[in-house]
Amino acid sequence: xxxxxxxxxxxxxxxxxxxxxxxxxxxxxxxxxxxxxxxxxxxxxxxxxxxxxxxxxxxxxxxxxxxxxxxxxxxxxxxxxxxxxxxxxxxxxxxxxxxxxxxxxxxxxxxxxxxxxxxxxxxxxxxxxxxxxxxxxxxxxxxxxxxxxxxxxxxxxxxxxxxxxxxxxxxxxxxxxxxxxxxxxxxxxxxxxxxx
Length: 196
Fold this sequence. Notes:
The structure is a single chain. The chain is mainly beta. The chain has 2 helices and 11 strands, in the order E-E-E-H-H-E-E-E-E-E-E-E-E. It has helices at about 25-35, 40, and strands at about 1-5, 10-15, 20, 45-50, 55-60, 65-75, 80, 90, 95-105, 120-125, 130. Strands 4, 6, 7, 9, 10 and 11 form a 6-stranded mixed beta sheet that branches. The chain has a 3-stranded antiparallel beta sheet with strand order 1-2-3.
């Protein structure tokens, strides 16, 4: 059941009980782009991030050559288009925020960025695709994957080099035994400086 609520300054897309709002994308665009790919709306990437001071920003580890579409729910009542130009968000109040990304994410690597320690949990891999990069979670020293509900999409990847390097809090990865690594030939340093 897909319901569109018109082409006003805000648009809404409803799949059953899931409703997605975005002021930057008209409902006609949303329906045109995603009517054939409901999966991407229902299986978002869900993660928790922590800010420790007011007006602190987080930056998603996107690449300029990656593919991004859909919407980002930043967990503070703000929803924006999922594009490379919208990768940074500022939170007025310090705390933990569940960020949900619906649509397409192909291209992801923290590579010890300033925001790497701020991601503390992944609940659902969903639509996240990493692209042909390395160091996907390198430096995410506070990352917890003990309750992640599914497995990541590894299509198109041949290496997981330094994938979790320096994720020093990482002890357990739920469903790791179910990961499809049939196309992976290099796992070098995947768990370097972790407790896995």
